[in-house]
């Protein structure tokens, strides 16, 4: 006999109620979700573990048996350096503590809900295409003040503070203004990154070309390369236009001095309209028109990088992660080489050797996590000689701890970048506006494509970015930073 | 005795309604709430009233996106429906008649399957596929051939006035198959005698199409128009994956969902992005209501 309810009313009443109750039980947890809406936060503060005993080996007073959670961006540098080097170092220092490891390619996707829910992980490698906005994090008091870490004695030499073991400018780079008007270090930039223009040592040697040091030489060489049927210069417009605004602004800094960049970072009135910026934009627009390829606007960075590996493109602007990124596609003997972005005139304020270098890969400790002291201690271990050396050996890149890369045999590209950094001496500079104001970065990228692929002139280029910078300056919902 | 009826009905409705409220209605309502705040995604939001909406008014990218939806709204349904109607006419009634029964063109069954292929592919795959098709150099599917023949490559996604149409072409390519099937089903239910009678009176195929097929298919067309119109308000996945510089060049292909995504997940301006979302919500709603009203007309009984 079938029990299809042809006559629903005849169903045993008790059965119906029972079923209704069962359904209701299933739905109850869902109602709980209603109250836990997306924006709720702060009302359930994380209970933090107390500190441990401060000692010579534990100057930050991390609790010895409290676990820490480490989230690593699984990108160009992978996650192996964390699982194989830094986490074991922490484990060794605190055998009773547990290190939870998580790797992701989309940091904000994974972590944004955790911050909103008041339950962030202790230590975060905030990097990649989807990194969390540092400004917003600072604004919300989510980041641990790292002053104590920088002032703590280093792991290797108790007489030296951690801040003295890293290259100058790194602590400064991670400093942000706080809501109360102060200025504190919140972010550790760990990887030493040198920017410039890359070429194949082999291609140049085979053709008897040498890296140009001034603008006239650069243009003359582009002409020669073009005659050979090779595209002299190119970057990828589809997703990597910032590689090119970096070049334009680097040249602008050489023309007008590093204050040009400082003004841009500080959103000073008319910063983008400074002569140096306009001149550099004009110069590079000419390169785009004469010595590049229109189709590059539709290509991704990996496409153009591959073309360089295939000998179809001579010069390509990037940072010194390039060599590692292209490892698989680089033919034997290619020999990546870096040259500083050439200056423009003989009256440039900075010498030809001046270079943009910075700490790359941002790391922070969440102040509202359970064990922020453990997070800071993890950083201290990272900044030890063993931590830095292990990182360099694992990924082939230099860290901001010079002691870690001493005597290390870098591949030719990174070696040339390190040599250029040394040659630059004190003329090393950086820019920060893209990390501070992502909208400005987006606008600069779009405008750069317009300029380099010949749709607008230098005047319009500086005009439109200036307009966006002004709008950001006026926008009260955006936290401002100064350096 | 029917005293068990209401608990029974309620018991069955409770779960789906609760789920719907929690996962659909509540987020919608919350978007309205968030759009009135300056929430940046982390700590508690602050109420700012209609500030976000005021800012929308002079946001260039927002209006650019709205304008593109206008183009999409006209082009996507028109082109898709025209092509789909043409194909389904050929597939169902375009061939010879045998034994009084209208037939499709030769091989109609095969084509029907082929047309449906794009519908089976995930949108992201289609976008990646067309990256290859549109690639601006010798390794692109189209430009590879063009360059072999000695022509200059066509910069599909790069030339600002071509980029949006390149995107529309992909959307049409993807949608046509489904509507061919939809219209075929509609045509199959049109009685063969009507065609027969019309043919006896000397109607050509063109007359058959406009005087018989089209009027009898009106209801289905109306549904197709609304579906495609709503699809025209989306287009996010294709734009996000296919266009250069995320809706570029210089916003030439951007759509509202792209701007919402950028504001929320790149700039962390969740409040402002929600305001855009609310605007999109009303645009879609207005469109659906308008279309249903404008196309209201007696359907032919047969």
The protein's oligomeric status is heterodimer
Task: Report the portion of residues of chain B in β strands.
Answer: under 5%
Highest-level CATH class of chain B: Mainly Alpha
Largest sheet of chain A: 9 strands, mixed
CATH C-level label of the largest domain in chain A: Alpha Beta
What's the alpha carbon Rg of chain A, rounded to whole Å? 27 Å
Number of strand elements of chain A:
11
Please name the CATH architecture of chain B.
Orthogonal Bundle
User: Structural class, from secondary structure content of chain A?
Assistant: alpha/beta
Count of spatially separate domains of chain A? 2
Structural class of chain B: mainly alpha
Strand order of the largest sheet of chain B: 1-2
Termini distance of chain A? 82 Å
Overall morphology of chain A: globular
Topology (elements, then pairings):
The complex is a heterodimer of chains A (483) and B (302).
Chain A: H1 13-35, E1 68-73, H2 80-93, E2 99-104, H3 107-116, E3 123-126, H4 134-139, H5 147-151, H6 170-173, E4 175-177, E5 183-185, E6 188-200, H7 201-207, H8 215-227, E7 231-233, H9 242-256, H10 259-265, H11 275-291, H12 301-309, E8 313-319, H13 322-325, E9 336-339, E10 355-365, H14 372-382, H15 385-395, H16 402-405, H17 412-424, E11 428-429, H18 433-436, H19 438-452, H20 458-474
Chain B: H1 5-34, H2 51-57, H3 60-92, E1 97-98, E2 101-102, H4 108-120, H5 123-134, H6 141-148, H7 160-188, H8 192-200, H9 205-216, H10 218-232, H11 236-242, H12 256-266, H13 270-294
Antiparallel strand pairs in B: 1-2
């Amino acid at each position: 006999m079938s029990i299809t309810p042809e006559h629903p009313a005849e169903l045993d009443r008790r059965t119906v109620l029972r079923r209704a109750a069962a359904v209701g039980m299933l739905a109850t947890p869902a109602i709980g979700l209603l109250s836990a809406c997306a924006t709720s936060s702060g009302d359930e503060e994380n209970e933090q573990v107390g500190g441990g005993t401060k000692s010579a080996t534990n100057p930050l007073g991390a609790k010895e048996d409290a676990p820490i959670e480490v989230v690593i961006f699984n990108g160009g540098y992978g996650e192996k350096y964390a699982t194989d080097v830094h986490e074991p170092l922490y484990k060794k220092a605190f055998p009773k503590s547990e290190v939870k490891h998580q790797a992701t390619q989309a940091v904000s996707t994974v972590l944004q809900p955790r911050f909103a829910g008041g339950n962030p992980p202790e230590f975060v490698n905030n990097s990649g295409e989807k990194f969390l906005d540092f400004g917003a994090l600072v604004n919300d008091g989510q980041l641990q003040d790292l002053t104590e870490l920088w002032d703590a004695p280093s792991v290797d030499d108790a007489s030296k503070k951690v801040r003295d073991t890293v290259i100058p400018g790194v602590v400064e780079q991670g400093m942000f203004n706080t809501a109360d008007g102060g200025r504190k270090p919140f972010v550790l930039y760990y990887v030493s990154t040198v920017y410039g223009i890359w070429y194949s040592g082999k291609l140049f040697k085979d053709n008897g070309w040498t890296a140009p040091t001034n603008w006239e030489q650069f243009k003359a060489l582009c002409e020669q390369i073009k005659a050979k049927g090779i595209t002299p210069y190119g970057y990828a417009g589809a997703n990597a236009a910032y590689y090119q605004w970096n070049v334009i602004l680097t040249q602008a800094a050489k023309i007008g001095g590093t204050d040009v960049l400082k003004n841009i970072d500080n959103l000073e009135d008319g910063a983008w309209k400074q002569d140096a910026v306009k001149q550099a934009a004009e110069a590079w627009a000419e390169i785009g028109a004469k010595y590049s390829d229109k189709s590059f606007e539709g290509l991704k960075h990996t496409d153009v990088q591959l073309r360089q590996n295939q000998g179809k493109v001579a010069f390509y602007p990037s940072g010194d992660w390039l060599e590692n990124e292209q490892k698989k596609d680089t033919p034997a003997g290619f020999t990546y080489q870096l040259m500083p972005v050439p200056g423009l005139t003989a009256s440039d304020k900075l010498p030809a050797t001046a270079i943009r270098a910075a700490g790359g890969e941002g790391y922070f400790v969440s102040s509202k996590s359970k064990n922020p002291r453990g997070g800071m201690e993890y950083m201290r271990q990272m900044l030890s000689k063993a931590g830095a050396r292990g990182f360099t050996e694992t990924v082939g890149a230099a860290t901001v701890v010079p002691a870690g890369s001493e005597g290390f045999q870098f591949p030719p590209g990174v070696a040339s970048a390190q040599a250029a950094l040394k040659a630059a001496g004190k003329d090393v500079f950086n820019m920060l506006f893209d990390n501070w104001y992502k909208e400005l970065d987006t606008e600069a990228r779009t405008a750069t494509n317009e300029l380099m692929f010949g749709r607008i002139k230098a005047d319009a280029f500086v005009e439109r970015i200036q307009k966006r910078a002004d709008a950001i300056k006026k926008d009260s919902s955006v936290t401002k930073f100064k350096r | 005795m029917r005293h068990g009826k209401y608990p029974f009905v309620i018991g069955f409705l409770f779960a789906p309604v609760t789920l719907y409220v929690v996962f659909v209605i509540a987020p919608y309502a919350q978007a309205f709430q968030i759009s009135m705040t300056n929430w940046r995604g982390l700590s508690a939001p602050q109420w700012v009233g209609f500030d976000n909406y005021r800012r929308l008014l002079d946001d260039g990218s927002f209006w650019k996106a709205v304008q593109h939806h206008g183009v999409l709204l006209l082009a996507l349904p028109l082109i898709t429906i025209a092509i789909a109607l043409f194909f389904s006419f050929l597939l169902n009634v375009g061939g010879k008649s045998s034994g009084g029964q209208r037939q499709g063109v030769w091989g109609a069954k095969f084509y029907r399957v082929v047309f449906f292929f794009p519908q089976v592919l995930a949108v992201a795959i289609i976008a990646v596929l067309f990256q290859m098709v549109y690639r601006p150099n010798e390794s692109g599917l189209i430009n590879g051939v063009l360059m072999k023949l000695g022509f200059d490559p066509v910069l599909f996604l790069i030339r600002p006035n071509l980029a949006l149409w390149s995107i529309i072409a992909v959307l049409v390519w993807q949608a046509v198959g489904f509507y061919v099937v939809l219209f075929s089903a509609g045509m199959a239910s049109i009685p063969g005698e009507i065609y027969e009678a019309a043919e006896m009176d000397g109607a050509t195929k063109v007359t058959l199409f406009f005087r018989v097929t089209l009027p009898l298919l009106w209801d289905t067309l109306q549904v197709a128009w609304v579906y495609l119109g709503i699809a025209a308000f989306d287009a996010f996945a294709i734009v996000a994956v296919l266009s250069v510089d995320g809706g570029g060049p210089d916003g030439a292909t951007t759509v509202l969902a792209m701007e919402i995504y950028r504001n929320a997940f790149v700039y962390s301006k969740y409040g402002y992005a929600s305001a855009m979302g609310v605007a999109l919500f009303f645009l879609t709603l207005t469109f659906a209501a308008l279309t249903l009203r404008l196309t209201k007309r007696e359907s032919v009984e047969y």
